[in-house]
Amino acid sequence: MIRSLRTTASHYLQENARLFVFTIVLFIVGVVFGAIVVNALADGQKADLFHYLKGFFALVNDNHLADSAYVTWHSIATNIKLLGLVWILGLSIIGLPVIVVLLFLKGFTIGFTVGFLVDNFSGKGLMFAILAVLPQNIVIVPALLVAGVAGIAFSLMLVRSRFTQNMPLYQKFLAYTLLFLALAVLLVFASFIEGYVSPLLMKMITPHL
Q: What's the DSSP call for residue 208?
């Protein structure tokens, strides 16, 4: 079974190699753009965000963070909604550009967050980003990139199906949906990391900020 899964995954990667390259580059561009925008913020905006972060760090130090279970379930709801949106968008031809925008915005959000932390706290900000932002996103980002590729590929397949007869749409749809269900499991796992692991890691660095 494991060998079969590896073969299927390898075939899927080869078949959609260009889309994977495209989505990865798109995500990286979003990260870079988000980091650049930090420098374009007005001084007042930077000051407001800085004070917000200092208040958040104070809450972390005083153990006044939201309950881990609440954070986990909120993260699960957010991630599954985003994954479900990509799934729905992949089922329509017009959803393709929206998927592209969502992947770019995900990269932008991470780039802006890390860029702002580094801009204001230098190396300690980078360490906070590694401990607080990286753990769950090690799982979330690849899962969303795979979802994005699957959504774009399915949308393009729907376009081709209009010009090709006897295309096995039901089988493709079933495989598409099963892939998203597997990705949903990964995102639930990432949400538990965000709720239970990341807060502990944050507490290690916030006293030094």
A: G
The rounded distance, in Å, linking the Cα atoms of 199 and 54 is 16
Prediction pTM value: 0.89
Residues 197/68, Cβ–Cβ less than 8 Å: no
d(CA 149, CA 142): 10
- Number of other residues whose CB lies within 10 A of the CB of residue 89: 24
Nearest to 148 by CA among 7, 21, 9: 21
115 within 8 A of 173, measured Cβ to Cβ: no
CB 114 within 8 A of CB 33: no
Six-digit token pair at 150? 């699957």
| CB neighbour burial string for 174-192, b if at least 16 within 10 angstroms, e if fewer | eebeebbeebbebbeebbb
Contact of 148 with 158, CB cutoff 8 Å: no
Q: Are 48 and 166 in contact (CB under 8 A)?
A: no
For the chain, the first-to-last Cα distance in angstroms comes to 49
pLDDT single digits (tens) 160-185: 877 776 667 888 899 999 999 999 99
Q: Are 99 and 152 in contact (CB under 8 A)?
A: yes
